Structures are given as structure tokens and as C-alpha cells.
Hints:
The protein is α+β, with helices and mostly antiparallel strands. It has 2 domains: 25-216, no CATH class; 237-433, Alpha-Beta Plaits (2-Layer Sandwich), CATH 3.30.70. The protein contains 12 helices and 8 strands. The chain has helices at residues 25-56, 61-85, 90-109, 128-137, 143-165, 177-218, 224-231, 255-260, 264-284, 310-334, 369-383, 392-401, and strands at residues 241-252, 288-293, 296-301, 342-357, 362-367, 388-391, 413-419, 428-433. Strands 1, 2, 3, 4, 5, 6, 7 and 8 form an 8-stranded mixed beta sheet that branches. A hairpin with a 4-residue loop joins strand 4 (342-357) and strand 5. Helix 9 runs antiparallel to helix 10 (310-334) and helix 10 (310-334) packs across helix 12. The radius of gyration is 34 Å and the shape is elongated.
Amino acid sequence: MATDAPASPTATNDPQSNPVAHAEPGLTEEQVAGRLLALQGRSAALVAIALLVAFLVPFPQMIYYGALMVLFLAIGFARYGLERSGLYRWWHDYLITAVDFALLAFTLLYPNPLAPPDDTPLNIGNFAYFYVMLVGLAFGYQPHRVLWGGLMGAFFWALGLVWIGAQPRGVAVVITFPSVVETSVVFLIVAVLMAVIVARSQRLVDRQVKAERERSHLARYFPPATVERLTGEDNPLSQMREQNAAVMFFDLVGFTRWAERHGPAEVITMLRDVHARVESAVFAHEGTLDKYIGDGAMATFGTPDPGPRDATNALACVAAIALDFETWNDERRRAGLEPVLISLGLHYGPVVVGNIGSARRLEFAVLGDTVNVASRLEELTRAIDCRVAVSGSVVEAASDEAGGDAAAVPTGFSNAGKWELRGRDAAIDVLTFG
């Protein structure tokens, strides 16, 4: 039997409306969170600068700069609003970044219209604000936007300096072509270095997201200790191998008829309750939840790696499930509900373990005659009117694990004699529980 590997989450957004639609979902979430953090940082910085301006710049010049601060704030919230409303398009990033740097260059280089006529419009030291804006772009984990910001910053600063140099105000003497080129080139170099750092951070987040998703998928099948080991190895299940393992099949008896009398919501709720109980018991006894089969399940003990108590754990698990459902049914009867009837089959023997499938779709598989026998034992419970049917092979293996001590078999199992299984010639020893 093979497990259906969970499909990897994929983004379904239109790439025209979402510039990171091709990215991993977890990475996309980090990008959105980063852009929100950048907006919060931008807002806080603008408030701080506005307070500084109010303290340093006399009235009424401060009104002009205050209005520009509000405009910067509006641009930041406009991008956030477009994204939240679903109106955001990939080119908005480029447009908003260009507008940001153009407005910043205008703010720093154009004379304040409320200032005295002889006020000098140029202060090259103010170029540091361009680096602050560039750093803000890095929060979105989008290196292309950082590069675009570098280009726009260098372009609009150079354009502003050229414009200032062309003005007949005596300022051109401090502006030279080498100084314009030097400032712009250094800014571009910083932008490229930042884009490389952002790209590397993006890859690191991407790998972390994939590792966490892989860990989450493995946790659906394996107990926590096994998950920790598997996530630390490269392709741990790539090689098919033969080993001994215990295989358990679980099923709900009469569930189809029960489902006919109940609504879909009740059916789903019932299945979730049942699966949760089985899963808890399997993991508590160091088993692997191989797959859910409609209202049933398949579990293995000793996969992906065999252990010293696989058969013992398997016997304890089926006993625990049977007792758990017995207790649950007592509660259901007291509540006026129908009991939940179950059947369990368990066998121990050689299996083949590993991944099967193609490069596009792999499934963790446990194959072999042992799997078939376990399935037939689960069916046999109807014929011998019991809840649990266990092969003698499991009991022998549990005894061997205990050094030949028959007391290793949990109490409650009784010998039901030899039974023939469907599709098999030789009869096998069967034990029942409860």
C-alpha cells in the first residue's frame, strides 16, 4: 500500500496582480509581512522627521515640509491599500518606487517656496535620506525592487543636480560632473550589494519555508522523533529496501449505512474524531500513519526504520485503540448516540519500504504480502465476530523482542485457532482481542 503524498501548496494568484505569485506561500507571507513592517518603519520615520523639522525649521517654511511628509505617508499607504483591496498590479511596484525617489529628490533639491529668496536650495549632505529609503525597500525580500530603487535614486538625484547646476543662482560652482557621477555610482553600488543580500535572504527564507513544509508533511505520517531524524537527512526514503515490520489496518464497520442517515457535517465530524483517536494511538506507540482509506486507516510499526519493539508496540496499539473505542462507545450510549463499531487487522513480516512514483510525484510506500495479510485479517473480524484479529506472527515477534518471554504479549488476547484468509491457500494462527 502506498501513501498519497500531500500536494505541495502552490500559489494560485495571477502573476499580473501579484508580483510574487510564483513564490513559495511561506515566502510570500514573509514578503507581505516585510512590506507591512517597512510601511510601519516609514511612518515612524516620517513622524520623527516631521517633529525634527518642526523644531529646526522656522515658520512658515515648516508648513511646506510638513505637506511633503504627508505626501510621502500617503504614497506608502496607497501601496498598502492597493494590495489589500486586490487592485495591486506588478507594475505598481516600479511606479511607486520611481515616484518615491523623484519626490525625495524634489524635496531635497528644490527651493522651499516659503523660504527667503536667497535661500540656497542645495545641500549635498541630505543625500543620506536616499539610503534610508533604499533600506526600506529591502524589507520586501524583492531584490529587483532594490535594484530599481537604486536606479531611480541615482537618476533623479543626478537629474536634480543637473537642473540645479543650470540655474543662474551662483550655486553651479559647487556642482561638478565628477561629483554628480561619484554620488550616483556609489549609490548604485550600494543598491547592487543590498540586492545581493536581499536575494540571499530570500533564498534562505525559501529553504526554511520548504523545510518547515516538509516537516509538517512528515508529521502527518511519522511520530515526532522520526520526523526529527528524517528532516535532517537528504532523500532518506529514496532507496527501496526490505525489512520486517508490523502492518495494521483499521476500519469502521457499517459506516456507509450510518452516513446515509446523517448529514455531511456530521459525517465529517465523525471521521475527524475517529481519525484523531487512531492517529493518537499510533504515534503514542511509535508507529507510522501510512494513510487514511476513506473511513479507515493503515499504519505500520518499524518503518521507515525497524526498531527493537515494533511487534510489541503494534500489539499494544491495537489493544489501546480497541479499549479507547470501547470507552468512547460507553460515553456515546449514555448520551443516546449510536456506538461506533470498528475492526482491526494486524500482521508482522517482511515488507518493502521506500518512495515510489515518478520525479513529478513520489509516494512513501510499504509493499508486500505482509500488507495483504493484514488487510485480510481486518476483513476476517466480520467472519469471527470480533473487533481485533492478529496473526500469530505478531505474537511470535513480540515474544522474540522480549527474549522469548510470552508475557510480552498484552493481556486480553485470546487464541481463535487457524483461519483461512481470502486469496490465500494456507491457514494462519489468529488471535482476537476483547
